[in-house]
């Protein structure tokens, strides 16, 4: 709901439990008023009537007050918008108009010197507390006017209320150790997170959360969160200003070297930078983020994700059609629903230094192409998927030999190789058309149901010789990726897509709006995964979080040995997959795995679509996570290690009705909701790397 007051100069957006208000002054300054609990329109008007802070030497009264900070004029904070032409640099804007279209508010400004149009977009839906913000910058000059260089154009600036201090939460990491949660006091100055790598990156997820004075807990206290929907290089800056105010800006591009050059008539629309206020702690904020993504971001989110088998850890590059058939037969016997052939099926791809870019089946490994294998997989009752990495090329490939100019490179410089790969310049129209023809042809040549789309290489030589404004490739690569995925999904609506980037290197709201799930990390060790999955859940729902059960010991990373029980219960916290070499599993292991797959299918609606409660974080000892969907509750509990004579504590559940009774579907025992909430659940776990699944269903009658 959007309401206006003060002659159309105060705007109030209201969601399910929260509100957002802003105000245009008589001098044309757009000021922030409120972000927090729902307000009445009269409250917003009262806030608008309050004066700006008094004069303070060497400070601007606008700093920390404006809704969207531009470069130029009496401002000293980090600008969200920076432009230049031969005439001038910076912006001096004039308010032009406001428009309300359903749940979207649009505020339009202009700069007469630059002939620039700026539109700020706001959307807040009645059934959610997420505020979606983005901006459109347009060159509104006449033909022949000089181009407008867009140095920086953030999606939004978020302003927090004045408090004594703030604590910042962020997710950091590296390859195989993504999504690690860290919280620390926000000190004065700028805290800048981002990626200069051309993709979202393993190092930081584009999300931050802040709570006043570190007072919020998992289930209580005010939490403000912001998340950016962009799959290329990005920046989020958290500014702790001299007067104690805090503003958060974010958008595409890492620094101010330049985004785009806009000719007259051209425009740029930023990605969405979403914000959320929650009064229910970090857990409440997470559940609101999850619900919003399931309702508004993730395609067909109501469809449950299938149990998959992926061949990579079982075979590496040494794959063949008979070998894949043998794995498929065993996978089908386990109850797997989707069989995915990973790297090595195409071109001369017998190792990681050849074949990328040549997306036709290797004739020695698949003499009849992929269709015979896909047909057999379908006959076994499973769907069929493949791995691709379209944005990359090996120098040892037919594509590169034919088109060496198609890769990102700088004239006269050595072409840097990572993982024996170069990055195709997807900003080029001819490259886009080639990839469309290759992937569309591939999906048309065989009954493919699923595509794992990988991206294993950061940008290093981001040049475009001959292009007048080569910096634009950073933006245009991502735009082209989105366009290609949108085009493929429209042409092949029954095909699902998974985003992968060496594991969790491209996970954000932008890619999630075009894919059905994401590969969370290349680290499949079940203990390491607990921390990765805990961090991931701060923002994203279990419905998109792929997790595999692989072989023990974990030879890829740490050599840790773990039971099949521990591996399955760890992976059941998201979208379950199996990635071990099933031809080496014993009959006892296969029988046990069938039971776990059957159990996962029973709890899948609760895990993938339910409200998630992080009961105990994975910090050693006992950890647990809970899901509630309708009358059903699932608890996954893990015990990392147990000291001698020390009994693991009971796990206190959340999200239950204290006046109701709940039956354990595994034992038949009936538990009172109040007891589970207060006293907790005795898991019975013991020793090292133990785990268990608990299922409860609310009974119709209430206990006396």
Automatic annotation (TrEMBL):
PANTHER family named among the record's database cross-references: ALPHA-GALACTOSIDASE C-RELATED (PTHR43053:SF3), GLYCOSIDASE FAMILY 31 (PTHR43053)
Gene3D superfamilies with a match to the protein in the record: Aldolase class I, alpha-galactosidase from lactobacil brevis, Golgi alpha-mannosidase II
Signal peptide boundaries: none
Keywords from the named record: Glycosidase, Hydrolase
Family, per entry: Belongs to the glycosyl hydrolase.
Enzyme class: hydrolase
Catalysed reactions, as listed in the record: Hydrolysis of terminal, non-reducing alpha-D-galactose residues in alpha-D-galactosides, including galactose oligosaccharides, galactomannans and galactolipids
Keyword Hydrolase: yes
One Pfam family per UniProt: Glyco_hydro_36C
GO molecular function, one term: alpha-galactosidase activity
Annotated ranges, domain Glycosyl hydrolase family 36 N-terminal: 28-260
Designated name of the protein: Alpha-galactosidase
Recorded superkingdom: Bacteria
Glycosyl hydrolase family 36 C-terminal domain boundaries: 623-696
Enzyme Commission identifier(s): 3.2.1.22
Hydrolase listed as a keyword: yes
